[in-house]
Write a structure and sequence with these properties.
Elements (H helix, E strand, L loop, with lengths): L2 H22 L1 H10 L20 H6 L15 E5 L7 E5 L1 H15 L9 E4 L7 H12 L3 E3 L6 H10 L4 E4 L1 H13 L12 E5 L5 H11 L2 E8 L4 E7 L6 E3 L4 E6 L13 E7 L10 E7 L1 E2 L11 E2 L4 E2 L4 E3 L2 E3 L1 H8 L5 E12 L2 E10 L8 H19 L4 E5 L14 E3 L6
Parallel strand pairs: 3-4, 3-5, 5-6, 6-7, 18-21, 19-20
Antiparallel strand pairs: 1-2, 7-8, 8-9, 9-14, 10-11, 11-12, 12-15, 13-14, 16-17, 18-19
The site of 5'-O-[hydroxy(phenylacetyl)phosphoryl]adenosine has 21 residues, from helix 5, strand 7, strand 8 and strand 12.
Length: 426
């Protein structure tokens, strides 16, 4: 679709969404009244900046169904994201919302031409988490065979992958790495015997280095799939064959990038916080939702021919950013450094503490089994270049510890990379 046609469609859908929010959801009416904006003030997609933001706290305050814009009897499914503290964030869906969600995932899967001859192994968790059922419904819409195995039970995953001939894998990148490791270590299954050809990985930040490792180890094309419960789940966007940014389905979810301090839109192409307005959602429409995901939007045309705007890799969430000795650190930056060295595994765990008024910064890492030695002198050969790389990237010095193979916990879903002990001190 041309940019102008897209803008017209977005305008039409925004006007409708805002009117519904104002008329049906007391929360939005109150917020818009406070901001002095009425539905009639929204005449074009550019007027979106007049609308107030919605935050995760608002969602929690309106828990569970305060933001619904339809009678609850029209809801057909409820999902929720775990959240680290307190009440979960809830997403509810009408039948149309479920169809639109599946369409978003199906568009992502189109890049690998997923269809009736394919078996899609859905190794995202099934349940309240949107990953499992989201990928499942997208695969169903493509007419593919769905294998709803969910996350975990790694040995069985690889046995069925071989026996059932799964050729598309959907899971978090960290679980994909765990599966790759299990396949390479396996005495019964070899990667050459598998039919895998593509993977759709998301739900957590991952790096180019991780992509290369996964593509090489699993002998597949590894595509990014992005999404969040507040919009629908997976399938807000996905990568094309250029693997050069994640196309966002902006006819369904309008993206903006704002400066986290001024809350004003940044210049096109600049980094900031991603904000979404749903343009088609019925059960729980959302206006200007602050995702806390930090990235940038790329408006230059993509070689693939898709005109939907692209999003750069997500650096991390603003709430995952560590401030160590005054320096901003995103855990994914450690992954970037690790994957530049063949000897290291892409697994890591960061511990931050404050001792004698100074921040400590410890990183546990693993060497691949062929390189591992328990001898500290041997280890120094590997630690030194990694240390130098991290210092050049972050400007602060970590303590690097090499752990024996498999010592770092492997994740089935979203990996946990950080323990910040400072949070528990007065
Ligand atoms: O993680 C939905 C999903 C499932 C997406 C499966 C992709 C695949 P939530 O649990 O609500 O929903 O978490 C949403 O996860 O705001 C990002 O911080 C992060 N996230 C999701 N996809 C990506 C990605 C699902 N491709 C939050 N890259 C989002 C980086 C991602 N971060």
């Amino acid at each position: 679709m041309s940019r102008e046609d897209m803008r017209q469609l977005q305008t039409k859908r925004l006007i409708k969404t805002v009117k519904t929010c104002y008329e049906k959801v007391p929360f939005y009416r109150r917020k818009m009244n406070e901001a002095g904006v009425k539905p009639e003030d929204i005449k074009s997609i550019d007027d979106i900046v007049k609308l107030p933001f919605t935050t995760k706290t608002d969602l929690r305050d309106e828990y569970p169904f305060g933001l619904e814009a339809v009678p609850h009897s029209e809801v057909r499914r409820i999902h929720a994201s775990s959240g680290t503290t307190g009440k979960p964030v809830v997403g509810t869906y009408t039948a149309n919302d479920l169809a639109m969600w599946a369409e978003g995932v199906a568009r992502v899967m189109a890049v690998a031409d997923v269809g009736p001859k394919d078996t899609v192994q859905v190794s995202y968790g099934y349940g309240l988490f949107t990953g499992g059922l989201g990928a499942h419904d997208g695969a169903a819409l493509r007419g593919a065979i769905q294998l709803p195995i969910s996350a975990g039970n790694t040995e069985k995953q690889i046995m069925l992958m071989e026996d059932f001939g799964s050729n598309i894998l959907c899971c978090t990148p960290s679980y994909a790495m765990r599966l790759a490791e299990a396949i390479l270590d396996s005495k019964v299954v070899s990667v050459n015997k598998l039919k895998l050809r593509a993977g759709f990985f998301g739900a957590e930040p991952w790096t180019e280095g991780m992509r290369k490792e996964l593509e090489q180890k699993l002998q597949i094309k590894a595509y990014d799939i992005y999404g969040l419960t507040e919009m629908c789940g997976p399938g807000v966007g996905g990568e094309c064959e250029c693997q050069n940014g994640t196309h966002l389905w902006e006819d369904m979810y309008f993206p903006e990038i704002i400066d986290t301090k001024t809350l004003q839109p940044v210049a096109p192409g600049e980094f900031g916080e991603l904000v979404f307005t749903s343009l088609c959602k019925e059960a729980m429409p959302i206006l200007r939702y602050r995702t806390r995901d930090l990235t940038r939007l790329i408006y230059e045309p993509c070689k693939c021919g898709r005109t939907a705007v692209r999003m750069d890799r997500i650096l991390g969430r603003s709430d995952d950013m560590l401030i160590i000795r005054g320096v901003n650190v995103f855990p994914s930056q450690i992954e970037t450094c690790l994957t530049e060295f063949t000897a290291f595994q892409p697994y890591y765990f960061i511990t931050v503490d404050r001792i004698n008024n100074e921040d400590t910064f410890d990183i546990n890492v693993e060497l691949k089994a062929d390189y591992f030695s328990a001898d500290p002198q041997d280890q120094m050969k590997f630690i030194k270049p990694l240390f130098n790389r991290i210092v050049s990237m972050l400007g602060i010095k970590p303590n690097i510890h090499i752990l024996p193979p498999y010592a770092i916990e492997r994740s089935l879903g979203k990996a946990k990379h950080v323990h910040d002990k400072r949070n528990f001190k007065g």
